[in-house]
From TrEMBL:
This is Sigma-70 family RNA polymerase sigma factor. Keywords: Sigma factor, Transcription, Transcription regulation. The lineage of its organism: Bacteria, Pseudomonadati, Bacteroidota, Cytophagia, Cytophagales. NCBIfam families: sigma70-ECF (TIGR02937). Residues 23-89 form the RNA polymerase sigma-70 region domain. The keyword tRNA-binding does not apply.
Amino acid sequence: MPQPLTDLLADCRRGSPTAQRALYERLAYQLMGVCLRYCPSQAEAEDALQLTFIKIFTRLDQYREQGPFEAWARRIAVNTSLNAYQQHRQGAPQVDYEAAANVPHPDGTALDQLSTDEVVALINTLPIGYRTVLNLYAIEGYSHQEIGELLGISEGTSKSQLSRARRLLEERLLANNNFTLS
């Protein structure tokens, strides 16, 4: 039977390697999913995950038990991954998102016909800026103001990128009615 989280955290605060390993095993899968949504590559997501756990273990004294521990750890993973995104964006060529075509909103959606893996693969085809805003807004629940602060963009840019991400996904769905993983 797994050790209760409060006991596990107390042991981690005391520096127990066994407890740290148990906490890692308990949260790694979930937090890797978060890192993969924001990092531009699998390798960078793995690095972000490791850095996330370093931050968790070195900052456990900052967790005040005012909410679920998993939510606190998830926020660290999001922020760590966003830092990787920012570093990647600074080194990558800039994309002119304003030049993206405005695609009319279709009446129907092909999204209902896709598996979860296909939806994730389709989202991963989006430009990293669009994908990041979409993940932060639709999955993590951040407001456009919070997204703007996290990414160093205006609230309007966040709204615009979300809208364009949705349109681009719809366009790709319509263009590839039989979208499959390759």
